[in-house]
Amino acid sequence: MTETGLFRLLSAALGDVPAQQILAQVYITPALLKPVAASVSRAELAQALNLALFRDVLSRVPAGAAYVADCQRGGERIVFDHGALRTVAWPSGALPPGEAAITRVLRPLGFAHADTYPLPRLKMTGRSWRHIDFPEDIAQFFVSELHPEQFSPAFQAAVSRVLGASRDPLSPADMARLERLARDAALPWDDALTLLPTLITCFARQHPLFTQTDYETLLAESAEMAWIATEGNAFNHATDRVADIEAVAAMQKALERPIKDSIETSASGRVRQTAFKAAPVQRQFLHEGQVVTRTVPGSFHEFIQRERDSEGLDLRFDAGNATGIFKMTAAAC
Fold it and tell me: How are beta strands 39-41 and 186-188 bridged, if at all?
């Protein structure tokens, strides 16, 4: 794999050893393991970004890292099904509001909007983004938007204070590279190697330190917005596509890992999901002129089992499943 374009991208962004590690952990369709060519295809760049983001989740979720290590010792690779992140449909400083901050990256990489999933109990909307060239082999994105206008005026004011000084990680030069990628479905190597590390930073928190009082205001009405306040646009979870979710869940319970008690099943019956509970993380806040630290819910690792329908592998999601999975980050630490 070290002779492939994918390895060259990852090694430049992460280093040789991390690139080798992630390529050994995740299954990659042979069509994306091409020798280094004159340019980088959008699919190669999309896959490199996804793998870097998957590795980031593992670095923040010990139970997920332990599970992946188990698989690797058993000679198995993870099938990366999708990554999920949260956004806020609200003015956000220099950052485009809501999903626009992310979709401006996804579209040039070859992702297209697949389906919309209203999440009324959470006052959110979820949308799936699927890769045009490799829909089953490049992990999807599940991008959710929270709607502050459906909450109290005090909540809205806190959202404005938290997000108001957000930075935009993409420079005009980066946007020009993305426009070229959208036009040509490929980039010269220099542009691709420059762009990938910046794309990775788009999936992080873009706003500065904020007050613990504002955090408490958000938490009182929406655990999801409180999570966005501390974690930003980082992957909320990454998901392994498994063949037998009941067996996986039973094994993780036997190992005394923090697996969800139940398995969510879609209305169609073809999509089943469960997950580890969110890993606790330490985050800083401002309080009475001082910086304080508290433990809050971080990200988690998810499992999904997909069956086939008349059109092939059922790549859809389910609003009920999603609402249940969102609860993984709702518990107070």
Answer: antiparallel
